[in-house]
Structures are given as C-alpha cells and as structure tokens.
Amino acid sequence: MYDQNNGLYVAHGPNGPISIKGKMANRHGLIAGATGTGKTVTLQVIAETFSQAGVPCFMADMKGDLSGISQAGKMSGFIEKRCAEFGIADPQFHGNPTRFYDVFGKQGHPMRTTISNMGPQLLSRLLELNETQAGVMDIVFRVADDKGLLLIDMKDLRSMLAYVNEHSAEYQQTYGNISAASVGAIQRALLSLENQGANQFFAEPAFDIADLFAVEDGRGVMSVLAADELMMNPKLYSTFLLWLLSEIYSTLPEVGDLELPKLVFFFDEAHTLFNGTSPALVSKIEQVIRLIRSKGVGVYFITQNPSDIPDSVLGQLGNRVQHALRAYTPKDQKAVKAAAETFRTNPSFNTEDAIMNLETGEALVSFLDAKGAPEVVERARILFPLSQIGAITAGQRLDINAASPVGGKYDNVIDRESAFEVLLADQQKAAEEQEKQRMEVEEQKEKAAEKKAAEKAESKKSKAKKSIGAAVIGAAVSAAVTSVTRSAGTAAANAITGKKSKSSSGKSIANKAITNATSSALRTLTRSILGNLIK
After folding, report:
1. With 70 as the cut, is the pLDDT of residue 504 above it?
2. Which residues of 475-507 are buried (b: 16+ CB within 10 A; e: fewer)?
3. Is this prediction's pTM over 0.85?
4. Residue 528: CB atoms within 10 Å
5. What is the torsional sign of CA 493, 498, 499, 503?
6. 3-state SS of 58-117?
7. Is residue 122 predicted with pLDDT exceeding 60?
8. Cα 35 → chain centroid
C-alpha cells in the first residue's frame, strides 16, 4: 500500500515497514520462488501499490488470478492476523482501474501489432528460423522498405516472400542468395504460426503504447493481458512482450530518475524470454533492460528461480523479493546457493537456509537504497492486497470491458491497402497486359489468315473463270463442228441416193449447217455455264 509516511510499502520485517524507494523503482526488480509460495500475490501487492501512487502498470495474467486486482478485497481471518502483525488498523479495501487485453480478443480488448512493427529479428525468433532463413527474412523486409510496401498482416508477408522468390535473380546480386528452400521453410513456419492464431495478432489497428500510461482519478491504470491461452505458445508470448518493451523503449523520451516511474512492466514466466534465444537477441534484451530505466520505466521479472535469467540481465535487477525455493536435487541445491549469494548478507540469519525454510507469503527482501546500493537482505512478510485475491467472474469482466474507454479503438479490425493488395494489383495488371498482347498477336494471326484465305479464293476464282471460258469456247467449237459435219454428211448421202431435201428450196446446205451449228453451240454453252455455276 502507498502512503506519505512509508511510500511504496510492500512488506513488513522485524524492523518495521519495508518499502521500494520511488526514485529507485525504475531500477527494475525480481520476484522469484517455487510454485505456490506466493509470487502472484506479491506481484498484486506491488502493482496495486504503484497504482495507488499514480503509476500505471502492465502485467500478464497466466491463470486469471490477477483479474481480481480490479475489485475491492474484503476482510478475512488471514488479513486480520496480518493487520495485527503489521499494526494496520481499518484497511481501506478497493479495486483499481483496470483494462483487460487479450491477443486473441476473447477476454479483453485485442492487442495487436503489425509485421513491420515486429521487425525481422523478433519475427525470426518467433518462427524459430535458422541463420540462413533469418537472412532471407531480412532481405524480404529490406525489399519491402525499398518498394514502399507496408507489411501489416500475415498475407502481406506471404505475398512479399512469394515476390522475392519470383524475383530472386534480380536481388541476388545486391542482397545475396535467396534460395527457394529457405522461402519454403519460412512459409511453412508461417502456416504453423497461423494455426496458433497469429492472424489475430498481426493486424490493425496496432496497439498504441500511450494507452499503457493512463491514469484515472489519480490512480495508475492496470493493463492486464489475459495470457492463459497465449502461454500455450511460449515463443509467441515472450516475443510479444519483448516487442512491447522495445516499443516502449523506442517511443519514450529520456527522463532519468523520477520521483516515481512512469510505468512498471511485470514480466511473468520470464524464463520463456530466454529459452532458445540467440546470443544476439539476449544482448538486445540486456540493452533494452539497461537503457529503458532512463525512460522512466521499471521492469520486474517473475520466475521460479533467479538462474532462469542470464547473469547479464539479472545484474540489472536491483529490487528483489525471493520466496521459498526447494532443494530436492544437487542442481536445486546449487540454485539455492546461487540465489543466496545475490543478496547482501544479513548477519542475523543464514540466507541459504532461510530460502529453503520460508513460509507461504514470506520472502527475503532487498531493495535499493536512496544511493542505488542494495540494502541488507531481510526476512519479511509480504503485505496483503487491498484488492480481491483470485479471479473475477466472466460477467464482471464483460462489464469492465464494456465500460472501457479503449473498447471502440481496438475491437474492429481494419484492413487497409498494404503489400498484399499492391502486389496483387501489380500481378493483375501484368496479367491484363499479357492478355492484351496475346489478343493482339491472335488478332494479327487472324488478319493474316483472312488475307491468305482471300488471296487463295481470288486465285481460285480467276482460275475458275479461265476454265469456264476455255470450256465454253471448246464446247461451242465442238458443237459447231459436229453440227456442220452432220449437215455435210446428210447432204452427201442425199446426193448419192438422188434424194432431195425438203428444205433445200430457198436454203443452201451451207446456211442450214451454220444455223444448226449455232443452235447446237448455244445449247452446249448454256449447259456448260450452268454446270460450272453449280460446281
């Protein structure tokens, strides 16, 4: 709890209240201990103490227990006992202003980001890419930047991968080899990520970091991320929180050590952040943790054992609460010894023994003093929260979400023009151009074929005319010859037999022959013309 006398009062030791120094709260912290030793309640106590002081907090809720921070607590036998021990009379139970978020949009407002905001390094970690595949991912982002294409959602990234693969020969000289096998591996990894719900995570509107710094009625707003489903994919969970930290770091200005931090960020299940993480990314995490305090942000890691966190990061965590650890194996014993050695020794007890014998709700506590040096470790009891311990009902959550001022800001997805639409339009335009060229070629072929057919028909027609003329002349001549011959034969026969033709009077044999030949030629000509027309 926060008050003017004790400040950020979170624990009570043999010598009285133990408080986090406001100016040192941005020097980060650690809450460690075995399962069931009280880490979640400690987180809740520290978070609501910051809220009472006007400091907003962000935290991930693994089991739904932290949702109770939104409701007022109530007196119980346990709390009555603690009040007597701590000398607290008439505690004022109250809830804290709370906003619920959920990457999948089920238990709170959707919390999204874009592919571009995530960046190639974090995305490669999320997809568990090897060095070669991560290099291809870097190239894809670089090409998208060069072409001015926005990478917002998964379909944008898929389109860019396909584009880079199709044009690999163009970019190989500039960026290096782009193998189809690497692109295929990335596409398969994206498919796996999509099956885990990443389509809901990578979209717009992207989460506005400024909403984490909200204060209502003088109290810092608790931004609670529902992470029970998200934790089913530890890589997505840890990468998302790392992105969030990076965004906070890149957005905020330098402010140094303030009287109170601007934001406190609680990172539960912190070991997931470092499992399978490359040395380069661990170095980046260390850099962010080291530098983000100058932005007025404190980061508190929650994990079972301090050894879960690399020494380079652990050394940055000045405010520590260590709950009980169990030492069932030689490895566990080493971990306990290592945890004890991180504290400044208190001559009144053995730190290593104390860690193994702490009760639930009891912890070894060491915060930074006003000069930034660790205080002597004390064995203390954590205060009880003034808000509800345990989860709220589904109806209460719905009511809080409905009354939230950011509901209309994030609840509806926006799908604006980005890489997918631009590349698709380019493909359609190229296809239309190809179709146009094909049609032009086909048209030219058709015109050429028509011209050739016309020339052939004309040639055939000319030949037919010549054939008809020759046939007509031949038929006429043949008919004339035949008619003349027939007439001449008839005349000769009459002469021999001495007969006279009935038509000999007034007409000569020659005239008759000519007449007959002409008639025969006309009949033959007519039949020939009709025959050719029919053909």
Report:
1. no
2. bbeebbeebbeebeebbeeeeeeeeeeeeeeee
3. no
4. 18
5. positive
6. EEEECCCHHHHHHCECCCCHHHHHHHHHHCCCCCCCCCCCEEEEECCCCCCEECCECHHH
7. yes
8. 34
User: What backbone phi and psi angles, to 5 degrees, belong to 204?
Assistant: -120, 155
Best CA proximity match to 264, nearest among 451, 25, 8? 25
Place of tokens 């109530």: 74
Highest mean pLDDT among 189-193, 453-457, 466-470: 189-193
The helix/strand/coil state of 53 is coil
At 266, the amino acid letter reads F
Q: How far is CA 529 from CA 363, 469, 474, 483, in A?
A: 124, 9, 12, 20
> Strand pairing of 222-226 and 109-110?
unpaired
pLDDT above 70 covers what percent of the chain? 87
What is the phi/psi pair of residue 36, to 5°? 85, 10
Gap between the Cα atoms of 201 and 341, Å rounded: 41
Whether cis (ω within 30° of 0) applies to the bond prior to 205 is yes
Classify residue 284 as exposed, middle or buried by CB count within 10 Å of its CB (0-12, 13-18, 19+).
middle
Closest CA to 268 of 103, 62, 67: 62
Amino acid 44 reads Q
Q: How confident is the model at residue 505 (pLDDT cuts 50, 70, 90)?
A: very low
pLDDT at 278 (0 to 100):
73
Q: What residues pair up with 319 in beta bridges, in sequence order?
A: 29
Q: What are the structure tokens assigned to 309, written together? A: 């966190």
Percent of the chain with pLDDT over 90: 51
Q: What is the pLDDT of residues 62-91, one digit of tens each?
A: 888 999 999 999 998 889 988 888 888 888
Q: Picking from 115-119, 306-310, 529-533, which range would have the lowest pLDDT averaged per residue?
A: 529-533
291-308: pLDDT as tens digits: 999 999 999 999 999 988
Integer Cα distance of 183 and 165 in angstroms: 7
3-state helix, strand, coil in the chain (%, to 5): 55, 15, 30
Q: What is the residue-wise DSSP string for 299-331?
A: EEEEES-GGGS-HHHHTT--EEEE------SHH
Confidence check: pLDDT of 489 > 80? no
Establish how many alpha carbons lie within 13 A of residue 493's alpha carbon, considering only the half-sphere containing its beta carbon: 7
Q: Cβ contacts of residue 28 below 8 Å, gap of 6+?
A: 289, 293, 298, 299, 300, 301, 316, 317, 318, 319
Q: Using pLDDT thresholds of 50, 70 and 90, give the confidence band for residue 492.
A: low
CA dist 527 to 316, 460, 483, 518, Å? 118, 21, 17, 14
Band (497; pLDDT cuts 50, 70, 90): low
Q: Determine the length of the chain.
A: 535
Q: How far is CA 399 from the centre of its chain?
A: 30
| Residues 6 or more apart whose Cβ sits within 8 Å of residue 166 | none
Question: β-strands 222-226, 98-102: how paired?
Answer: parallel
Residue with tokens 């809830």: 95
